[in-house]
Specification:
Blueprint: H1 3-30, H2 34-47, H3 54-114, H4 120-151, H5 162-199, H6 204-213
Helix pairs in contact: 3-4, 4-5
Organism: candidate division WWE3 bacterium CG08_land_8_20_14_0_20_41_10
Protein name: DUF5667 domain-containing protein
Signal peptide: 1-24
């Protein structure tokens, strides 16, 4: 037989048996055949078939989150705006009533002066009452300004800034109520007492007239 032919036998043997040896070693090391690996690879490929769309999906989710936050922001602004309008109207009514009360006290002082009665206590009461009403007006305006700060806050800065501003408004409202209570307590406990002291000094006909004027 030709020597050249015999020299090709080792090379052919390597080509035939080498893949089988590699396959055997691979199977021995992993316990999974090459076909099994190929099958799993196809499954993973199918599972992540839409992976190329992940950036787009994330953008859509971020856009949706921003949209929801803007809706929440707008709703909060509307509620605060409604409350601001309500409190502004309430301030107008209360200030008018307080100014009216001060005016009535001024008229009472002039009335008792005309009867030659000592109105020194009432005049002192009037000074204190005007000061209390002035403080009430100032503190109420501070409250409205604080509430307006939350009302006009841009939505871009709404998260994280709204609650602190609302807290300031709530704390200021406590001050407003304290001022209102001070006016009420002072009028009931001091002014009315001095008014009654002067009232009992009037003749009967003047008491009737005073009641009619009130």
């Amino acid at each position: 037989m030709n020597k050249k032919y015999f020299s090709l036998i080792p090379a052919v043997s390597i080509l035939i048996f080498a893949p089988r040896a590699v396959y055997a070693v691979e199977k021995q090391n992993t316990g999974v055949s090459v076909d099994k690996w190929a099958e799993q690879a196809l499954k993973w490929k199918e599972k992540f078939k839409g992976a190329e769309n992940l950036p787009t999906n994330m953008q859509e989710r971020v856009s949706k989150i921003k949209e929801n936050r803007n809706k929440i922001c707008k709703n909060a602004q509307e509620r605060v705006n409604e409350r601001w309008s309500k409190y502004y109207a309430r301030r107008t009514d209360r200030v008018e009533n307080m100014d009216k009360g001060v005016k009535i006290l001024e008229n009472r002082i002039e009335f008792y002066k005309g009867k030659d009665l000592n109105v020194a206590n009432l005049e002192s009461d009037l000074v204190v009452l005007k000061a209390l009403v002035g403080e009430y007006k100032t503190e109420y305006l501070k409250f409205l300004d604080a509430l307006e700060g939350a009302k006009t806050l841009p939505c871009a800065n709404y998260e994280g800034a709204f609650l602190p501003k609302l807290k300031v408004a709530k704390e200021q409202w406590v001050v407003v109520k304290q001022k209102s209570d001070s006016i009420r307590d002072y009028y009931r406990g001091t002014v009315k007492k001095h008014l009654e002291e002067l009232r009992v000094q009037l003749p009967v006909e003047n008491k009737v007239k005073e009641t009619e004027e009130e």
